[in-house]
Design a protein that fits this description.
This protein has helices at 12-37, 42-63, 71-96, 102-108, 112-123, 131-152, 162-184, 191-211, 222-250, 252-255, 258-274, 280-307. By secondary structure, it is an all-alpha fold. The protein has one domain. Helix 3 (71-96) crosses helix 8.
Length: 340
Amino acid sequence: MNGPAAPERFGAVGVALLATTGLVWGAAYVFIREGILFGASPLAFASARYLLSAGGFSLLAALRRETFPSRRALGVSAGVGGLLNIGLYGGLLYWGEQYTTGGYAAVLASTLPLLTVFLGFFLLASERLGAVGLAGMAVGFVGTTVLVLPELTGASALGTWEGPLFVLGAMVCAGVGTVLLRRFGGGPQGLWQIGSQFVVAGLLLGGAALVLPSSRALPLSVGVLEMLALLVGLSSLVGYFTYFALHHRVGPVRANVVAYLTPLVGVAVGTGLYAEPVTIWEISGVVIVLGGVSLVLWESSRKGSLARPPEPQPRPVASPRVPPPSGSDPEDRLPSPTGR
């Protein structure tokens, strides 16, 4: 019995999936900003999006007849992913976008792969960086400094210091959640598990909107409803579906090329459609950060190729192969986008 098929290189379908995922995830940051500008409270807006998305994921799982996960798998996914990957991530992201542009938030999101690798180095015994990976982390730190320094010093046209502070806090939460799910989650997250994460996050942020001394407004205006529909239909449902299809087709290393497209799309949509400002600091910072991401992904890809055993020769009688435990392949430990 043969093992799983090796991932393909990018073909026409892979390129289409990559472009679609990068487009809907990169534009999500701009849709969030526009919904807030139309008068939606950040926490109420996030809660509505997540609860509607949860219903959509559950419907897709039922239509696809996806096997319902075990109680433990569902509990870990809902607890860790719902609290960190979606809940705290979304709450901080939406709150931060009160103070900055959607394009700038998308640029800051390019730091997530580096943060995930950095946190995995300390929290996962299997995660170890070589010289190239460490160099990539250093380059990424320099790029992040370039990105946030103008806002922290009050010398930027993109907003105030609260924006990058909350958005980077969101990326840290997503990074911690990704690493913990990798350690305790027991394998890939199915649609039922993703839906459970969105339910927990939606309820958490909805409760926070009611309790915290902040606006609870969610006007049912055309602008707010339009942004909500785009976030639920495109950024959540289409985005996750195309990403996991891409992941299955080309493998995790190549799928994470989407990290390069997200900031570019965010800036292009924000500037081209909504006249958001863009600065030389923003452009320089994201180029440096993506350079660091390139080094880390290159090292991970190289380790993955070196760690793969040669294909076994066919035998007359073959016993079923037990698939390796989650995380045994270095490529499976790469950071993946989350919680857009």
